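Title: Request for sanity check on Armadillo repeat containing 10 prediction

Description:
We are preparing a figure and want to confirm that the structure record we downloaded matches what your pipeline produces today. Could someone re-run it with the sequence below and paste the raw structure tokens into this thread? We only need the token string, no images.
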Amino acid sequence: MDADALQKLIHLLQATDDPLIQEQALITVSNSAAFSVNQDMIRNLDGLSVIGGMLSGCVPKVTEKALNALNNLSMNIKNQEEIQVYIEQVCKNVESAPLNSDLQLAGLRLLTNMSVTSDYHHKMINKIPCLLRVLSEGSERTQIQVLKVLVNLSANPAMTRHFLRAQVPSLLLLFDNRINRDILLRALVLAANLKKNVNNEGGSMIQDQYSEDSVFSILCRDSTPFAQKLASLLHHPDPEVKEQVVRILTQ
């Protein structure tokens, strides 16, 4: 797509209130954003702010398509610098969307891209309990997507305390031989990252107060149920799963 065609699309998004036209225009922008030259062009035409402004609309399908467009556009570092101002709104979209909906998944995909580096993690701190709730209640497809975000966040030591305080009574259910391999592996990476960060803190986090259902109590306190789960997973047929189990046990 040339600059003139993209400009017309962006102007159309600004000019129309018709949800069907908005949807189709956003799909076209999203497809064109698969090409890096178009990613820069859309930014230079002020397209990011136009699309970002559609995240707080009341038509779920339009919001979903806007999230998909920003997701494709967020592959570009300079675009991320502009898209980051919408992270809090994206988190609200994820929280308010129907569980397992395409809208929720679109928001999670964008958060995954925006959390690959730690630059914008601070904007997601307050939504860790929400993301963990989606992990507990979501379908396998949703669990895999939200775990991608959580694993990215857990790699950052500055996020660890916020994880440890969160209450997730059902967390242990993820560490089971019968669980989908992609979910299990990511859950183990999440646990390994958190345990590593706790150990690197030299004990200061252990002195904090945690509830019985907190992530800390389940994963880091002398937890017999978690230890039993890990012992069982040592016999898992997947070598990557076993590798992460060993990583946790040797920390």
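Thanks, this matches our download. The chain has a mean pLDDT of 95.
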